[in-house]
Write a structure and sequence with these properties.
Shape: rod-shaped
Protein name: Bacteriophage lysis protein
Number of domains: 1
Structural class: mainly alpha
Strand content: under 5%
Keywords: Coiled coil, Membrane, Transmembrane, Transmembrane helix
């Protein structure tokens, strides 16, 4: 049988204390790992929620931009139809363009239709192809301006939505 002095051996007590310390540290380490895992999972969940909310806002913004672009395309198509009709009318001569011209001093004898209508400035009628070419140039310029305005509108829409989200 063991004596009481055998139980009082300091090496046994030191070994027991070391074992308890190791077990405590392992349990504490596992608790820290579990807490860290829970924190990571919470951060991932929060990230996913924010990401999903951002996707919803992005889809809504994309839909607004698509609607704006669709409206612009319809307006542009209507404008092109109108411009094409004007250019066709100018080419065929059903619509005419005249410009004021400077001439040497002349006397009007009342046979000039412009003078009869009260316009005393002499005028010259443009050739149909020249009038159509000028109308085409003006239409191209208007088209470019409309394109730039549509771009600015889309930019302002995105900027306004993103500024609202940031606040």
């Amino acid at each position: 049988m063991k004596k009481l002095t055998d139980y009082l051996d300091p090496t046994l007590w030191l070994l027991a204390i070391q074992m308890l310390a190791i077990v405590y540290l392992l349990v504490e380490r596992q608790d820290n790992k579990n807490a860290l895992n829970r924190a990571n999972l919470a951060a991932i969940e929060q990230y996913e929620q924010l990401n999903q909310a951002s996707r919803v806002k992005e889809r809504a913004l994309r839909d607004e931009i698509d609607h704006q672009a669709s409206t612009y395309r319809k307006e542009k198509q209507n404008e092109q139809v109108k411009n094409n009709a004007t250019i066709t009318a100018l080419r065929t001569g059903t619509q005419r363009v005249s410009v004021a011209v400077r001439t040497c001093s002349t006397t009007t004898n009342g046979t000039d239709p412009a003078a009869a209508s009260g316009d005393t400035n002499p005028r010259a009628e443009l050739a149909p192809e020249v009038a159509a070419a000028l109308a085409s140039i003006a239409a191209d310029g208007d088209d470019a301006i409309h394109d730039l305005n549509a771009c600015v509108k889309a930019y302002n829409l995105v900027r306004d939505r993103l500024n609202v989200q940031a606040q």
